[in-house]
Amino acid sequence: MDVKVFDNKDQASEAAFEFIKAGLANGATTLGLATGSTPIPLYKHMTDSDLDFSNITSVNLDEYVGLAPTNDQSYRYFMNEHLFNLKPFKETFVPDGLNKDAEAETKRYDQVIADHPIDIQLLGLGQNGHIGFNEPGSDFNGGTQKVHLTQSTIDANARFFEKEADVPTYAYSMGIGSIMKSKKILLLAFGENKADAIQKMVEGKPTEDVPASALQNHADVTIMIDKAAASKLS
Ligand code: F6R
């Protein structure tokens, strides 16, 4: 793991943008993308840039079960607002939160990933060490799954909803096994509330209790964090 520590999230986000830009210049055509607060400054750099994404495909990590693309809390809506409406991509994939048939949806999304091998996978990090919505205990080799979100994740995401009861309790998520097949992985994490998860991910033994620790087994992972997120590293 190549861990890069920056003074603040703005500097880290600028470096992340340069990382994506260099990846595209080197021939990357498929980006794995994340939602949440962490990648917003990076997406702003991307939309402000003169980079052309019209030949680029994106495959998102996850989506809440039960939310329509028009729901402003859905991840499809988030991606449209922050990136796709401002920078047209060739094709964009997000799991279909309205598909009630979990077996069909997880199979369909695994096929999407197989058909569009990911060159650079962007990840955020949950306070409990989750990547995508792969919560503690997730299989390191798993494919797309319907996940029951943990209380910690529901609490963390409640800030985006009017009230906690509105936070969906299930999501479809790309599995850790699929994330691990990406050629390169770039994980971003900012703030003190990520420091524990960063410490366990980087310095702990790989364990399913800390999903992000699986990344220790990947050959090309770059971690860009601010000082606060790095504060528990030895
Ligand atoms: C979102 C995702 C999640 C988030 C994580 C951190 O697509 O996959 O793993 O990256 O929950 O969220 P933020 O960035 O809001 O702290």
TrEMBL record:
Transmembrane segments annotated in the record for this chain: none
Keywords tagged on the record: Carbohydrate metabolism, Hydrolase, Isomerase
GO molecular function: glucosamine-6-phosphate deaminase activity; identical protein binding; isomerase activity
Residues the record marks as active site: 62 (proton acceptor), 128 (for ring-opening step), 130 (proton acceptor), 135 (for ring-opening step)
InterPro entries: Glc/Gal-6P_isomerase (IPR006148), Glucosamine6P_isomerase (IPR004547), Glucosamine6P_isomerase_CS (IPR018321), NagB/RpiA_transferase-like (IPR037171)
GO biological process: carbohydrate metabolic process; glucosamine catabolic process; N-acetylglucosamine catabolic process; N-acetylneuraminate catabolic process
Coiled coil (residue ranges): none
GO cellular component assignments: cytoplasm
Domain of life where this protein originates: Bacteria
Catalytic activity line of the entry: alpha-D-glucosamine 6-phosphate + H2O = beta-D-fructose 6-phosphate + NH4(+)
Cytoplasm among keywords: no
Boundaries of every Glucosamine/galactosamine-6-phosphate isomerase domain copy: 18-221
EC number from the UniProt entry: 3.5.99.6
Pathway involvement of the protein, from the record: Amino-sugar metabolism; N-acetylneuraminate degradation; D-fructose 6-phosphate from N-acetylneuraminate: step 5/5
Enzyme class: hydrolase
PROSITE patterns given in the database record: GLC_GALNAC_ISOMERASE
Function: Catalyzes the reversible isomerization-deamination of glucosamine 6-phosphate (GlcN6P) to form fructose 6-phosphate (Fru6P) and ammonium ion.
Family: Belongs to the glucosamine/galactosamine-6-phosphate isomerase family. NagB subfamily.
Protein name per its UniProtKB record: Glucosamine-6-phosphate deaminase
Organism name: Lacticaseibacillus manihotivorans DSM 13343 = JCM 12514
Gene name for this UniProt entry: nagB
